[in-house]
Amino acid sequence: MLGPIIETLIGGLLTGILYSLVALGFVLIFKASGVFNFAQGAMVLFAALTLARLSEAMPFAVAFALSVLIMIALAYAIEFLVLRRLVHQEGIILFMATLGVTYFLEGAGQAVWGSDIYAIRLGLPQNPIFILDSVFPGGLLIDPAELVAAVICAAMVVALAVFFQVTRVGRALRAVADDHQAAQSVGIPLDRIWVMVWAVAGIVALVAGMIWGAKLGVQFSLSLVALKALPVLILGGFTSIPGAVVGGLIIGAGEKLAEVLLAPVLIRWFDLAGGGIENWFAYVLALAFLLVRPQGLFGEKIIERI
Amino acid sequence: MLYREVGQFKTSYAADQAIFPILQDRWFVLLVIAAAFLVVPLFADQYLYTEVLIPVLILSLAAIGLNVLTGYCGQVSLGTGGFMAVGAYAAYNLALRLPDSNLIVVFLFGGAMATLVGLLFGLPSLRIKGFYLAVATLAAQFFLEWAFARVKWFTNYAPSGSVAVGRMELFGVAIDTPARRYLLVLSMVVLLAFAATNLVRGRIGRMWMAMRDMDIAAEIIGIRPLQAKLSAFAVSSFYIGVAGALWGFVRLGSWEPLAFDINRSFQVLFMVIIGGLGSILGSFLGAAFIVLTPIFLNQLPNALGISLSTAAISHIEFMLFGALIVFFLIVEPRGLARLWAIVKEKLRLWPFPY
Fold first, then answer.
1. Suppose B142 and one of A269, A280, B18, B255 were both cysteines; which one would form an S-S bond, judging by CB atoms 3.0 to 4.6 Å apart?
2. Taking the mean position of all CA atoms in its chain, how far away is CA A124?
């Protein structure tokens, strides 16, 4: 009995890492500009579509580099056409604007690149491997593609941490995140920082889209991954990069375990037509958590003044 | 010249507290309502009723509900679709299990059940705020959607998972033609909209607005957050629930949970923002805008003589819709209601420059 549960747990943790990757993009933008960027999911879809279609025509490395450039151009366009014109608006207005951007990107991505299911081939090993078969009967089944994804994600987080802590630009980003006005007054150009942070979020979206796309195929439903990243965000705190990672792990493991352990119980008690509690379990878990710690796991303590 | 309040003296408390203090406003509203009841049925055809008028009216009601919560009390909610589903399924179950119930009672029951569920999901708002709350209300959306898809009792063990309402009758009159459906919806929406207008300008509405503007300051001057926030959730959910029941019974006739998915929540939120936060009139304008724009965009390629595949049309529709939302937010973040207010300001001075 223990073997399958541990297997589910590991599968959940690996999926959770992918959630973290999407959540990271949210956190970056929220930290630097206070914008709740709902378009992150659409950016993942758009980036994955771009990469998938470009790599059909050219070597993968070139396609990837070109996709990075396109995401940077997109970041610039969003800053120039949308954000710049909405400075000093309330958070909800900016949130709605990113919803508009979401619709636009979803439409544009499919209008330009087509709306079929496309494949991204990373050349990852496909066959599942067994480990620890001396400890558990039958061993544990692990998908190596997810393992590779986990490694890429970990590398991404380390790279971002280094970028934020060591480089000059990273310091500027942290300063802006801390206090917009103070940062501006010591000469940090806010608009350029925003372009930069959207570009970084775009590249994170590209990596997330690449891995999700390799796993599931690139299609419209990829943009729904954003909805899975939101509970990760409130669990980890909107402003914390480690929070996004840890939150993703908790949500990923929690929802897979719930589907295996809790769903059968619910079906028996309430006479349900099937389980599928994955869709809401993450949210309820995060909500229950918020009631105890309203700022999330690693969020900054909320101090209110009059 | 036409629109000014000069010479309109308020000589009694009743006049001072009138819902439309300016004579011209009063006449305008009366005229619009009279036209909606008497003139529209003279020329409207079935398409206009089922695709334009009825959806706009029902979604306006939902938008009023969300506006109470988000526009007046400042609590962003993304669970509107879920609460509409509660209204629709509660009404369905009452009509199913007590077949003799009056149709109005059925709709109000839908609202009442949505109120209870709304109160439950409103409880976290006492502890969490802002976008954390917005994401938390998504929990309501996904949980309710799931519950109505999976718990068989709600759908009366229908194998397909979709439910259908039978013949509708009100005071012995069968509600079977589009015109009768329209009049039923119109009367409910007019009454509920008046109730909402009165509610938000009274004591309770001011309590909500104080909460919205600064909750801690409101608490310090003696407004109880528990009462203020939960009453906003209750009233809002009631309106949304009635709208959901109307949507299921009058607009759709038969439906499955997908009719109330998260896109419905976003649609209503768009209406509130585009129409204007904190404005009942804005809810109507926003609903009209959001319902009519896709219809218009859909007809556009035909009108221009361009032939495109259906998929391409729907993608371009998405793009234009998104771009329009952004455009409107940039031009007037305070919504269509604000544009209307500006027009009225200008009208007061017209034809003089100042």
1. A280
2. 21
